[in-house]
Amino acid sequence: MRLIHPGRLAARFLTLLCLLLVALPALAQDDLDGLLPVTEAYKLTADASTPGVVKLHWTIAPDYYLYRGRMKFKPGEGVTLGDAQLPDGEKHHDEYLGDVETYHHSVDATVPYTVAAGTSELKLSVQYQGCHEVDPKICYPPHTEQLTLPIPASGAPAAGAADSLGAALGKLGSNRGAGDGASLPAEQAFHLEALAKDRQHLLLRWTMPKGYYLYRDQTALKLKDVDLSLAKPEWPAGVEHEDAHFGNTTVFFDQVELPVAIEGNTANLKTVNLEASFQGCQDGGICYPLMTRALSIDLSGAAPTSGTAAEPAPEMPPARTSEVGLGIALLYALLGGLILNLMPCVLPVLSIKVVSVIESGESPARRRSHALTYSAGVLTSFVVLGVAVVALAKAWGAQLQYPLLVAALSLVMLTAGLWMSGVVQFGGSLGNVGSSLANQKGWRGDFFVGVLAVVVASPCTGPFMGPALGYAFAAPATQAMLVFFTLGLGLCLPFLAIGFVPALARLLPKPGAWMETLKQVLAFPMYLAAVWLAWVLANQRGADAVGLLLVAAVLLAMTLWWFEKSRWSGSASRSWVIVLALLTAVPLYALVRLPAAAHASASAVSANGTVAFTPAKLAELRKAGTPVFVDMTADWCVTCKANEHAVLDTDAFRDLLKKTGAVYMKGDWTNEDPAITAFLQEYHSPGVPLYVVFPKDGGNGNRLPTVLTSSLVEEALTKAAGTPVAANP
Fold first, then answer.
1. φ, ψ of residue 483 in degrees (nearest 5)
2. Are residues 357 and 278 located together in one domain of the fold?
């Protein structure tokens, strides 16, 4: 066997890493060149310009078709729908659905409706399902789009160009494609706030998430209920944009502030009511219908327009920016990576490295080899994960939202535990479990353990990782990647120190017979990690998923048992190992097809008074002047569970909620949820946990640290409720 010089190995690793960073964007683009996203395969437009009738039109891409019988229409609040009128489709026999009718190329439908008095918008949900009829032959799951359309006055002429465009493109719940998730609700995509700089001057601010933009020339402002008018708005410079509907126009990304002057005497007014109409789009995605917001602006505390003794005018609350600089973020990242070594979800994997490092004894070459290859696996994984997070705007730890990965990791932990318990042997070296799992030899085993450490480390957000990752999410790509690299360096730093500092290596105990006992003891954290992942899976897909995982675990144990028995058998006997391994994948395939586990409805209140998070419910509570404590959590988030045990799931916290009149609102991100993802992005949070306290006066939310204490929560809720803090006796 030819040995590779360590220097050449490091050079090859660096070359491979550079090639990987260059190739990833191209690979990501290749993934988009296959099947169309559902909303591009079936482009839905809507027209409500005719009173009492909604006209729907699907443009169907070549080689795709829609099922007639899978179309469903449900009304929104205040709306009653009649029977939908659909044309006859092409009849054929489907092997799963029986005799069906399908549509190719395009299809039109009309849905009659009536609305209750006072209803200002026509809301309905449209569900449909279709398939790709050539290789790869797949059927999409049923897809639902939420439509919000303007209601025309009976007998009135058609709406203007902007309204017609909004009606035609009013698809607020459509998906842009793989990886992008659902488009945001209008209230989150275009957040509008306003205040009075003085009694004659208002300041408006629109804030949009990344990838959304606002039209300048589709914006109209007016005052309501007063005999006053507004001067021409003083728009800042925008971005020139060639629009398919409006031609060459000006748009604004991210955020825009608009000063507006009031014409007339406001001396006797306490408030003014502003009505703002505007329109915007998701870049490369949907355009929203014309939106109208009503804002009540307080003038009573504004500075007067004349006089020299006036206090400074109030300023708009500053936009959220990163709270730390690059240097501090890198320090947090290094400390966060170091602390990850102590987290309970990482310790089981690191037990493998403990055994391997002790086994290396006093051989400097073996210690350096273990340290370098393990570090290479950690750093490569962090760089790849960082590229994915930055390029796809995915939050940290979100990979555990996918049940298949959770189940696979549970089986990996089980395999490692069985090896450490002596049920199966993968090789003479105690540190080769990683390489054995990957069916590799030599340094590949240490590299694999480094990769595995990063995968299971993601949900364990340490106290120093939150600020560092928060900075990475808001920073340019180069600085973000530097943060991720430094996190990896912190995780592997202890093993690098042991490998290259002889004084530290001499502190390690001498190898001996006791090591076999240590290896068997360290198997039990592996089993506990597998149980924890099974519990996460139960919350994602229910008891059926756990049953399938247990079947897969039994088949895996049978595979490993036969692998051990076939060591001294012929090739025919060893081939059964492959057969059993393939059988292990069958229950995992069935697991993927299970629906998400049922959760409480958004309006439901649990026994301890917790309200499920939705943007609409949060807006309702804030409008009512109720303080709100928002907790974004997930079952796979270890820090979340620690905070719940220490602070949030206690009698003291429940008494504090009663004392302050606050509502405890909880968002469960165990499974993917676009609304929670949008909330995390709004607060530049790298993932969960995220805690935000909203005051009763409607002010900006106060984001709390990742690690909570009872005194910290009490101070935040007391301030939000506007109640005096009790003095210490």
1. -65, -45
2. no
